[in-house]
UniProtKB/TrEMBL annotation:
InterPro entries according to UniProt: DNA_brk_join_enz, Integrase-like_cat_sf, Integrase_catalytic, Tyrosine_recombinase_XerCD
Protein name: Tyrosine recombinase XerC
KW DNA-binding (keyword) present: yes
The keyword DNA-binding is assigned to this record: yes
Taxonomic lineage of the native organism: Bacteria, Pseudomonadati, Planctomycetota, Planctomycetia, Planctomycetales
One record GO biological process: DNA integration
Gene name of the record: xerC_7
């Protein structure tokens, strides 16, 4: 079996376990394209593998490639298809962890206001599309890809619900939306009476009626951020992103619960379900994401640990 067929077999194995495996399969197929059709997994040399990993020259991408190939070779070793692992013995140092940008509520208002003025000339997306996109991404804490893939039938306006289908973990969920987001979605969807009857049509479209591309959404959002004067000046790897609105929703919700005196640990599983997380640990990371949140948690602890100080 040549390397291409072997990798495809490996990808199908992981997808059969319920994984999307999209990023890994893309990297593995790029790896396969480096070799001719006669190359097999057992004839791979350490020199060939290391050359592929190191060609990007950046430690972060180095790490991503290494961590993608490492389980492939463990799989091959377990099956007896290779006798030794061709990966370099010393794994690269992982790059700094991505730190989401948490928008303040004032910044979110500035983003919404900026959608009315960020286009000097008509762009691929209408300003109302971008404004509604921002409202829904924040108000329903959706992933950017989930918003882009929504169809009209997924927006249940009478029930103030969004059906998110086949998400990051091949699961679907119902997400409630508040009155402001519901009315914004109603106004947006009803502006085009010609396509209202087609439930399979994209909920968010370009000016020509097509589904939005990821790069298109990202480009328009960068321009909105520029118009709103929002730019991160810390050591973050990326500038502000649409997806960070989802993280901002989670942090804002936790801060609100702390200030209301709610049982945050008890409510955390509810937030986890709302966000579509499969493990509670994925939601718990938000508990220490910002200084503001840590301060609220610290004040809560002091209230319980030293009640006489707060009731003196």
């Amino acid at each position: 079996m040549n390397l291409k067929s072997y990798v495809e077999q490996y990808v199908r194995y992981h997808q059969s376990l319920g994984k999307q495996f999209e990023t890994q399969s893309r990297l593995l197929r790029a790896f396969v394209r480096k070799f001719n059709s006669s190359k097999t997994v057992e004839t791979l040399t350490s020199t060939e593998v290391e050359a592929y990993i190191r060609e990007s020259g950046t430690s972060r991408y180095w790490y991503i490639k290494y961590s993608t190939l490492e389980p492939l070779f463990r799989y091959a070793l377990a099956r007896g298809d290779i006798q030794r692992n061709p990966l370099p013995p010393d794994p690269p140092r992982r790059g700094p962890k991505l730190q989401p940008y948490i928008y303040s509520k004032a910044e979110i208002r500035r983003l919404l206001q900026a959608t009315a003025r960020y286009q000097k000339f008509p762009g691929t997306l209408e300003p109302i599309t971008v404004r509604t996109l921002i409202l829904l991404t924040y108000g329903a804490a959706l992933r950017a890809g989930e918003v882009r893939r929504l169809n009209r039938k997924d927006v249940l306006l009478d029930d103030s619900l969004i059906t998110v289908r086949d998400t990051k973990f091949y699961k679907s969920r119902l997400v409630p939306i508040n009155e402001q987001v519901t009315e914004a979605m109603r106004a947006y969807l009803h502006r085009d009476s010609a396509s209202q009857a087609d439930g399979d049509a994209p909920a968010f479209t370009t000016r020509t009626g097509g589904r939005m591309a990821t790069s298109t959404v990202a480009g328009h959002f960068r321009r909105v951020c520029a118009a709103a004067g929002i730019r991160r000046d810390d050591d973050g790897r990326f500038q502000t992103r649409l997806h960070d609105l989802r993280h901002s929703f989670a942090v804002h919700r936790l801060v609100q619960w702390y200030r209301e005196g709610q049982d945050v640990q008890g409510l955390l599983p509810h937030l986890s379900v709302f966000l579509g997380h499969t493990q509670l640990a994925a939601t718990q990371v938000y508990l220490s994401m910002t200084p503001q949140l840590l301060q609220e948690a610290s004040q809560r602890f002091e209230t319980y640990a030293f009640p006489e100080t707060f009731h003196a």
